[in-house]
Amino acid sequence: MTLVIGAGPAGLATAAMLRRHGLPVHLVDRDATIGGAYAKMDPALLMTSPAKLTALPGFAPTITAPYFTAAEYVAYLEAYAATHALVPERAIVESIRVSGPGYRVALRGAAEPLAVESIVVASGVFEHPRLPTFPGTPTVRIIHSAAWRNELARPGMRIVVVGGATSAVEIAELAARAGCQVTIAARKVALETKLFGLDPAFVTLPLLGHLRPRRFCHGTFSAPAGDRGFAALRRRGAIEVRREPVRIEGDVVELAGGHRCEADLVVLGTGYHHAAPFLPADLARTRRGIAQTRRNESVSHRGIFVVGAPCARAAASQYLYGIARDAEAVADTIAARSDGRG
Length: 342
Prior knowledge:
Blueprint: E1 2-5, H1 9-20, E2 25-29, H2 70-83, E3 89-90, E4 93-99, E5 102-107, E6 114-116, E7 118-121, E8 141-144, E9 158-162, H3 166-177, E10 181-185, H4 201-208, H5 214-217, H6 230-235, E11 239-242, E12 245-249, E13 252-255, E14 260-262, E15 265-268, E16 293-294, E17 297-298, E18 304-306, H7 320-338
Parallel strand pairs: 1-2, 1-7, 2-3, 7-18, 8-15, 9-10, 9-15, 10-11
Antiparallel strand pairs: 4-5, 5-6, 12-13, 13-14, 16-17
């Protein structure tokens, strides 16, 4: 028996591929909701990866638009789960401990631990927002980008978006189009450059699927954000780019370099961190606290796999393109061991 933790794209794809091998799977999710973090996002947000690079193995999407919205992607995941007869059980994993050649998993409220041969941690990277704090006594409303909804933006509203990566750039675009006064505050805003009119992801993701560069995997590199109007809005003055915040006092955000701006809302587009506190305490981890893996498997605990985390197999592992390939590879490994071949 394999326990798969999480019913987002990583968990669904891995469970489906294990089923394809005829292996028993126990799929659990803390909310028993198909889609994981995608089901909690603003339905109107556009996915960062092109739709053609988001297909999970065993069921291709039929979308014709170049990018999914979050709502469209959740609908695809629901159809994927139905196609493979995947129904997650509502369960919260409390702890995992070694038991002979396998593991015993404590589920909250369960009378007895669950005995399994292998575990796939597919709980995603969007469940644990990074929430930086700033000196001062803020009275302005501060939210993480995970809580952003388009209806928050009203014409004339003053919004400061902290961060220069994908979520910050997209929220700045949406707020500016809604007539807000938008300031994006970051050390750097890096935008993708189109390659002959094509999204560079068509080149970079396949390449990253074969590489595991140290700089990328240890968190000193951030992928450029897609430009779906940001540069044009900035040229028109609808978005102002300033340096990073150093203090928030009342409704005034003080930025590096001495600039100050009043805000009605501060949005933290500061990303997420991967966390799985239920894993064994002695499990080998990277400096970022992520399970240290080789080909998706823990280097210290045979049979514990990670799908959907940064660099679980390669630099593309945290992206949907990489998740699809990692899920197949992990299922193949578990199947080979089940047959006595691994």
